[in-house]
Every structure is written in C-alpha cells, then in structure tokens.
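seq/struct pair 1
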Amino acid sequence: MSIAIKIFLTGVDIVKSLGKVNDRTERRDAAVNRQRILDTAQKLFEQNGVEQVSMNQIAIEAQIGAGTLYRRYRNKSELCLDLIKDKIAQQFEDIDKYMKEHYADPPCQRLKEILRLFICFIDKDLQWLTEVNDGAVDQNRVYNEMHEIVVKIFSEMTESEQSEPNNVFRTDMLLFALLRGYSFQKNLRGYSPESFLEQICLTFFPTR
C-alpha cells in the first residue's frame, strides 16, 4: 500500500473519530439543555403556577435561546408531560397491577376502582395535567392509555346487551369529564375526590 493511500485512510479515520466525538458532545449538550429547561420550568411553575409562566420566560430564566427551547418542546403541554412522565408511568403500573389482581371482579367494580386511582392521580397533579390536556388529544398518553382500558371494561359490561351502546363515545365523554371537568367540580362545586367519583359512576354506569 502506497504512503499516499495510507495517509488518505488515516485522514478518513480521523474525520470519522472527530464526527463521533462531535456527536457525543452534541448529545451531552442536548441532555444538559433538557435538564436545565426542566429544572427551570419546574421552579417557575411551582412559584407562579403553570398558566402564568410563558415559554419565553422559561428560555430567559434557563439562559438558553428560544429556538433551543422550541426545538425540544413545541409548547408547555409537551414540557409538562415530560415533567410528570415518571408519575404517569407509575400511575399506569398501579392500574395494571390492580387489573391483574382483580381480573375476576365484576367489570363495574373494576372500573370504579380504576377511576378511583385515576382521580387520586389527577387530584395530586392537577395543574400539570390541565396543561397537558390542552395539547392535542391524539398525542396525550394519559388520555390514550386510559381510553383503551375503559373501552375494554365498558365492552365487558355491555356484551350481553342486544343493542350495544357506543362504548368509544361513552369513554370519550367519561374521560373528558375526568380530565377537563374535575377542576371545575372540585373548585367551584365543592366536590371531594370521593363524591366526584360517586357522581361519575352514577352518570356513566349506574348500578342496575
């Protein structure tokens, strides 16, 4: 192999190595920026409330460019979802565990207990979830995963009926009542989590 070819191949290897180093640096920088954004957003949200904080305010406080922020998060809905993703994951692990342990219980009983767990979750993280729910429904993991669970249970409850109701529609209405109506019923109507649960059950699947 000629000296010229060896020099060329060595140069190619160096360029590849530099590219890998640059990729690692960029990934590390992106991770640092992400954590800075999340830490700043959480601090501002806790101090001022989610509604009162703008994306530009977060960028300024985090000392990053607005473009960097919007490349990572298109809106506050996505940012809030990232902030509570671990809590969301835990919530669905709890629901899955309950479903496995109580698979033989009547479907109406299972649905009520799942809703009890879900309302407790909403009550603890209401302001974060309110912002998440303002995002697109089709991108909302909380909505989509709960929708799948509830539709299946409603289908169990109505499988013996001659004229089966539209369980997808009923689930849509139930989840909108939970995710968008809970704050109103709690703060303006004075319902506790337990009394709200009872009203939801009476409205959507009354005991026969």
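seq/struct pair 2
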Amino acid sequence: MATTSSFYTLFESASGFGIFSVLENEEIGSLIQEVQLSMGDLARFQRIVKLVAFHPFDSAEDALENINAVSEHEMTEGLRNFIESNLPKGKKSTKSPLGVIEPTLATAIQENLGVPCRSDETIREIIRGIRQHFTSFVKPLAGGLLEQSQLGLGHSYSRTKVKFNPNRADNMVIQSIALLDQMDKDVNTFAMRVKEWYSWHFPELKQVVPDNFMFARCASFIKDKSELTDDKLDGLVEIVGDEDVAKKVIKAAKSSMGMDTSEADMLNIIIFTDRMISLAQYRNQLFSYLEEKMATVAPNLSTLIGETVAARLIQKAGSLMSLAKAPASTVQILGAEKALFRALKTKGNTPKYGLIYHSSFIGRASAKNKGRISRYLANKCSIASRIDSFIDEPTNAYGEQLRDQVEERLKFYDTGAAPRKNADVMSAVAGSLRALTGDGEDSGDKKSKKDKKNKKEKKEKKDKKRKAEEDVEEPVEEPVAEKAEKKKKKKSKE
C-alpha cells in the first residue's frame, strides 16, 4: 500500500484520551477497505494505526468532567493541553489534520486551537478498529480494567444526566393526570357498587339523590333507615344542599320497601362507603394539585385549552419538550393513533382531531368547521407549548391572547369578521411584558442609539461618495504636445 502522508485521530474512552497516527492511503476509499479488512487482524491493523500518546484520567470525577464536556461538544483544559503537546505545530500541522468522530467537537477544536480537523466515514471506521483493539495499544487496561472503568463512568454519567428542576416538573404532571384518569374509573366503579349494595336496604334513596358522590355521603350519614328521624334534617340539608330534598329523603325512609340488614352487614356497607368518599375527596385534591402544577409547568397551554387536556397532551407526548418539538399536525391528531393507522391501512379519511377534541372550542364549532378549528387550535397549542418550554419567567399572558385568537377564529367562521394577525398579537404581548418588567425603556434607548449610529454611518458614506465624485469631475491637464497642435490649428485658421 503506497502511503503519502499521515493524519491523527482522537479517541475518547472511559479511562482517558488517546491520539493515534494513521498512515493515509492515496485514495480514501482504499483506506476504508484496508481498515475494514484488518478489523479482525491486530498485526495488520497496527501497520495502519500507531499509538502516539495516551492521557489517563486522574480520578472518576475527572473522567466524568471530561466525558460530560465531550458530550456537550466542549473542550476541557486537560484535552486542550493534551492535543497541543502531542500534535505537530507550524506548517506540519496543516498537513496532518486531526480526525474526530463528532463533527461538532471537531469544529470546537478547530476554532479554539486552530488545528485542522476532519470527521468522515474513514474516521468512523478507524475509531471502530481502535475501540476493538484498544487494550492491545494500552496494555495496562487489559484484564477487564477497561470494562470496569466503562461501567463506573456509565453509572456516574447517567446519574448526572437525571436532573431535577422544580419549575419544569412535567413528570409530576404526567403522573398526576395518569393517576387522575385511573381514579375516575375506580371512583365510578366503587360508586356504582355502593349504590347497588345500599339500595338493597334503602332503594328509594337513588331516586331522590341521583348523584353518586352525594348518594354515598347520604348513605354514610343515614346508615340504618329506621333510625332516620326529623332530628337529622339539618345534617341531611348540609349534605344535599336543599331542604325539600332532605325532607323527601326522610319521607321515603319512613315508607321504604327495602330489606332490613344486620349490624355486621351495615357496618361493612358503611366502611366501604366511607372509603369511597375519602377516595373521591382525594381525587378532588389531586385535581387541585394538577391545576397548580400546570400553572407552573405550562401556564400558556393550560390557559388556552384547560389543565386536563393540556396535561393529557404532555402525557401523550412524553414531556413538555417533546410536545414543543412536535409539529402542529402531530399535536392535532395526538391521541388518535389507532384511527390514523387504520385510515392509512384502509386508505380512508384520516382523523381530524385527537385529544384536543375534548377542548370546548371543538364542541362549539359547527360540523363543517370542526376540522378547520381543530387545525387552527393545534397550531396555537404548538405555539403555547414552545413558549412554555423555552420562556424564562412563567406567564399566561400569551395563552390568554392565543385563546382570544381562537375565539376570533370561531367568530370569523360564523360572521366573517376578520381576526387579528398572529404577529401583531405576539408583538403586543411581548411589548406589554417588557413594559411590566421595565425593559421597555432600555430597549427604546438602545434602539435610538442604534438609529443615531446608522444615520451617522449613512452620512459618512454620502460624504465619501460626494467627495469621490468631485475628484472625478476635476479637469485633467492636457499633454504639452496636444496643446501645441491646438495653437497651430488656431493660427492657420486666422
């Protein structure tokens, strides 16, 4: 294999950095083929790749710091010194570039050190070979020490990547809405069981008090219908909220056709009823907690479509950041994946909406405009989620204006009144927020200074241009020979 010049390759491992020298072939394609053929043969691979230097990490903390910097495409001081001390300097450095597997890290090295870098298919194949034969180049890491360092670094790296931010706790929202949905099903089931069980004793109560939660509270208060007298009227009024209804309950108890129960049976019924009531009360507390959390995590999205629908969108997307990255077309049908794939398979009509169908805006739109308003609402939800995800100070000002825009769009479909433009609305909200925080004056001063500077530069350019034109228009002296010829012609005419 005829070789021309060599280049270098940076290899990052769990135990340290390594720089390898690579004998480059005349054609890149043949070098890739040579590396691939020598993967299983160490002696053949060592003819192509040579170890120049290896810099081991001092400790586990040092390894974690360096690998974190590499993952963020940044250079540490140790990596800078290692590269500078082991690569040729001066004119030789331009002939021997440094191969880096990550293009963004290669850009950072090139900008900070001025070292020419490359990141292509050849580098990836060489790094693959180095990783396979690394313990043969660095003998002290053989015998399982490299695997131990990789395992320890993997654990510590994973722990540092799991970050907790109380202001962006969208995981709490995801868990809360999942628990809320499950509790809705369970409370419903338990309420029906309470109604069926207690109705054997007092069947007329479900006709007077149809609400499940109120029925359970009444059952827990009444217990044995034979003990219900007019003395308990005030307690019943407090539960049902209406004196006439409470009187009907007492009247129905006196003439009830239900069966009598023993004390043990009634005790079990009341214990289960109390559990169901406490579960329903906790469900209300959980919903209040979800509302508070959504006001912190996604205030604009929850203001636009409500806390419950917004939380379900975040849950379906996986996180607020994932929802912010999703396009509006994905947000529109989020939650209707089964219908979408069924429509694609059968070549039918794709669904118009998913989870956003539960928003009040879709219900208020007419049948022919449901698809249009769902597309428009998904667009606004996408904007709101991106604002919530990247804004520094949580505010629901954008969400209120986005909600007003959806209202205007509904009116436009009904009456034809032209809605406001989105750019005007967003700029107005941004201006009002700047005015509230006091940044408006500073930005105005900066703008005025910038305008003055631009005017001054324009004036200077005009002056230079005018001066150049004047220099061009100045009379140029005629040569002496031409002057003499003109005088002779004049004399001959005379």
